[in-house]
Write a structure and sequence with these properties.
The chain is of the alpha+beta class. Helix content is about 45%, strand content about 15%.
Amino acid sequence: MCGICGILSLSSIPIDSQEILRMRDIMFHRGPDDEGIFLGEGIGLGHRRLSIIDLEMGHQPMFNEDRSVVVVYNGEIYNYVELKKQSEEKGHRYATNSDTEVILHLYEEDGVNLVSKLKGMFAFALWDRKKRLLFLARDRLGIKPLYYSQYGGRFIFASEIKSILESDGFEREINTDELTCFILYGYVYGERTLFQNIYKLLPGHILLLKNGKINIQKYWDVPIPPNAIGENKELHQRLDELLQESVKSHLMSDVPVGVFLSGGLDSSTIVYYMTRMNHQRPDTFSVGFGKPSFNELKYAKIIADHFHTHHHSLIFTEESFLQFLTKMIWHNDEPLSDPASIPIYCLAKLAKENNVSVLLCGEGADELFAGYSNYPAFVRDATLAPFVPKFMIHSLSKIFSVIKLNHFVEIAERYQMSLKDILERHMTKESDRVNLILSSNKQETYIGSLFSQIRSNTDPLSMILYIGLKASLVSLLMRQDKMSMAASVETRVPFLDHDLVEFVWNLPNQYKLKGRKGKILLKTLALNYLPQEIVNRKKMGFPVPTTLWFSQNKNILGFLKEKRSTERPYFNGREILNIVDNYEKGDLSYGSLVWKLLNLELWIRIYFENERY
């Protein structure tokens, strides 16, 4: 795992090596083991390396034989041994055993189409010196980050936003249009960020820059609606084969590999396949909290004992949370979308202290197999809404309101909405509050733009799964990447092998969701190798007791009450004070909103007012 950065001059202005060094070294945490720089005519590339494969010879930037092509790369190509053998048969000669070099020789054979051959997680930048072509690529699911900006006659890219901010002359400005998206969802979906003029290269896309012109192309997507593969008795066997192949490939490493173990179905499945492939006792790492309703450690221990792992656990406290909050906001580049970010960092830090630099995790399974609790409710509402007479719903809403059955009022109102509005209501708690908080509210969000791409004959489950795959999953992957890399640990996600993703995506819905139960095929398979109490237990979803902590710690909320916070031009200060006041008086329904507002305020102070805590 690595950090990459670079500048391409679109004018005659030369690249300053000190500028590249600043951009590179602010990402030291992404690659403490090695460093490199390349300066050419109008181009500068920087690289920091966390050594995982070919520890001695994997130095970057890396060149092809005649040094006409150079690449900086972040990620892992799990089929690189196979690809290397194929290119050697075509006459290519390798100087290393690194997966990085495969990218160079594939480019010589296939040009930018090389991405279709890669299995893995990656973000890379390749410079073709003869064509003066800059080629950027990001993996299919968005496991690895890649940001870019263009200003002052230059194109700039990096693994992290903070690297771009180190470039000369960049003027920091809040992208106020995307505050709506953050308040609604806790993350800025799509290609925009909360920094004006800094963009994400979207998952499954490449960017080509030649003669000053940017050309962005999509090279991969799942079909919408899915291409159903039909029912047959071999589906369980095929899922088993794909999981085995994926976990086996994700164990590729010249350093120890461990597992983030929550004790849930997804991470426990990975532990099973890892022990089945390796026949060794892996290191597993779990985190818990003092409050029993937030603690999954007992389930993690069941799996650790069942598979005889070397198990490590920690109890995460309020003090630890507050200690690392601002540091993690800095590492994340943008406000934290999820309180779980901080315990993920502490768990990765624990792994590093135990000499484990690679961790497998279960991210992606919920988005593929319909594991989230809001999916069944959306399918129900989206299915029923078109058939319920609007006059009946209007009358019921009035009756429920009079007798103060607020929950049923909300349900009744939902059936009066458009399908798009129903979808957004199921994805956020803040839709009724965003207008009160922000001085201006951008109505159209990335969720809305995704919805417009979905064909009318798409069933509700496939619809919300697609939105989850393209939006919320990407935010979770960025959380996982940045929090683990803050501790110089690489995280891998076996459920997101693209062959496995395509297989699960095209399964008939009954193998994913039946009634209120999700992950049907995965659970049926898992009963063959996991304890029943793990397979059938209720999903907890890595809860962090921030609502309890914040309600007991008034100091942390003091940031939102300060004059400079309430007078920021893009917020309604009076409404924020009202929200904080109600929260402190015990209305914990404001918990997620308070979390977002606090993160925004601290992020502004860190990135725009140069404060350190």
